């Protein structure tokens, strides 16, 4: 009987050790979720830095047809990873990683000039609480989707990028459904996961004060970077450094 008890105890110890090792596994997978009114191509410079430094980077090209669709697209990419992943979200992408990030294989969340919602909040409710200014957002003819006027895209979204880069972002933007912007968060992952936040101090799309208050509420590790809403493209070295630090800390 004593021998059987010791065997069961030993198995429990092995299981506990394995679980701890899994939680402390080095994080090498970076899954990036781009924001609305943009696509994943703007993350090329940041991704290249991360890849050069030994990380496996995947960019989710979510459809922005609904929050549920975008969460599903993110989970499909997470399913392809081996080992723990760090989820990185920009702007609306913060809504997506907040809902998708509760999985056990997600080691942490990085919000880059992003919305960081609590339960019951939507992008619209957050953006309306601390307006950033007048963005020239227009509706498509069917009234279902929104886009940023290419003529003012640079000033509103990417004021610190070279003109040709900002123009390309404007041309490659993904239109966002109104349904995605009004969807409410049900299960905020930052309540159970470590999180980090980049506040873009010159952001004209999300009020920097809103970015600060959301990050404070979530207890995120905050880094302020002087940059536009497209800080991931204009300051790739600094954004990559935050992501790498988060990956290192998340693996502890």
UniProtKB/TrEMBL annotation:
The UniProt transmembrane annotation reads none
Residue ranges constituting the AB hydrolase-1 domain according to the UniProt record: 30-242
Gene3D superfamilies to which the protein is assigned, alphabetical: alpha/beta hydrolase
**Per the record's keyword annotation, is Signal included, yes or no?**
yes
Q: Which Pfam families match?
A: Abhydrolase_6
Q: Which UniProt keywords apply?
A: Signal
| Position of the signal peptide | 1-21
Q: What is this protein called?
A: Pimeloyl-ACP methyl ester carboxylesterase
Query: Which superkingdom is the protein from?
Result: Bacteria
């Amino acid at each position: 009987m004593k021998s059987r008890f010791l065997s069961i105890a030993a198995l429990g110890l092995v299981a506990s050790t394995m679980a701890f090792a899994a939680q402390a596994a080095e994080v090498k997978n970076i899954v990036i979720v781009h924001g609305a009114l943009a696509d994943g191509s703007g993350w090329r410079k940041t991704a290249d830095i991360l890849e050069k430094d030994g990380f496996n980077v995947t960019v989710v090209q979510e459809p922005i047809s609904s929050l549920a669709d975008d969460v599903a697209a993110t989970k499909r990419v997470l399913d392809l990873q081996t080992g723990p992943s760090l989820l990185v979200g920009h702007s609306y992408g913060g809504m997506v990683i907040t809902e998708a990030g509760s999985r056990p294989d997600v080691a942490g969340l990085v919000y880059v000039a992003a919305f960081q919602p609590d339960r019951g909040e939507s992008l619209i409710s957050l953006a309306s609480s601390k307006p950033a200014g007048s963005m020239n957002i227009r509706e498509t003819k069917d009234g279902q989707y929104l886009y940023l006027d290419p003529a003012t895209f640079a000033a509103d979204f990417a004021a610190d990028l070279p003109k040709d880069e900002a123009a390309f972002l404007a041309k490659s933007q993904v239109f966002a459904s109104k349904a995605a912007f009004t969807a409410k968060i049900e299960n905020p992952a930052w309540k159970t996961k470590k999180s980090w936040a980049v506040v873009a101090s010159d952001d004209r799309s999300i009020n920097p004060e809103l970015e600060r208050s959301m990050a404070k509420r979530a207890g995120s590790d905050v880094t302020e970077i002087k940059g536009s809403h497209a800080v991931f493209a204009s300051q790739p070295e600094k954004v990559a450094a935050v992501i790498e630090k988060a990956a290192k800390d998340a693996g502890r």
